[in-house]
Amino acid sequence: MPKKTKKQKIISQYRKKLKMIQQTNQVPTPAIVLNTPPNDIEHPITKEQPQALSKEDASLVFFFKSDLKKSLALIFFMIALEFFLYFATIKNYLKLF
């Protein structure tokens, strides 16, 4: 296949530009249609009542709360122990080797 000459390259670029211009001119602008719902139709507003927890859900909530309390107590104890050891080593009450 022979190579393109400079003239052929210019002509092909010109064709591409023309094609692009024609495509942009052919794109129609979308028509704006406003659909408004009729006002005579009223939608009743109902308030949903909270569902009662089943026994299984109630037990899960109870176990979650009890586990949370135990975890918080354990965390508090560990932090208090860290403070005690920190201040005890500063004052040399505990001689750690």
Would you give an account of this structure?
Helices cover 59% and strands 0% of the residues. The protein is flat and about 95 Å long. The mean pLDDT is 82. The longest helix is centred in the last third of the chain and has 36 residues, at 55-90. It has helices at 6-26, 55-90. It has 97 residues and is mostly helical.
From the alpha carbons, calculate the radius of gyration and give it in angstroms.
Answer: 39 Å
Name the overall outline: flat
- The level of helicity is 55-70%
List unreliable stretches of 5+ residues: none
Q: Pairing-aware structural class of the strands and helices?
A: mainly alpha
- Round the mean pLDDT to the nearest integer and report it: 82
Distance between the termini: 87 Å
Number of separate strands: 0
Task: Give, in order, the helices and strands.
Answer: HH
The biggest sheet, with number of strands, parallel, antiparallel or mixed sense and barrel status, is: none
Counting H and I runs of at least 4 residues, what is the number of helices? 2
Strand content: under 5%
Secondary-structure blueprint:
Layout: H1 6-26, H2 55-90
Brief summary of the model shown:
The chain is mainly alpha-helical and 97 residues long.
Please name the defining characteristics of this protein:
97 residues, mainly alpha, 0% strand, flat
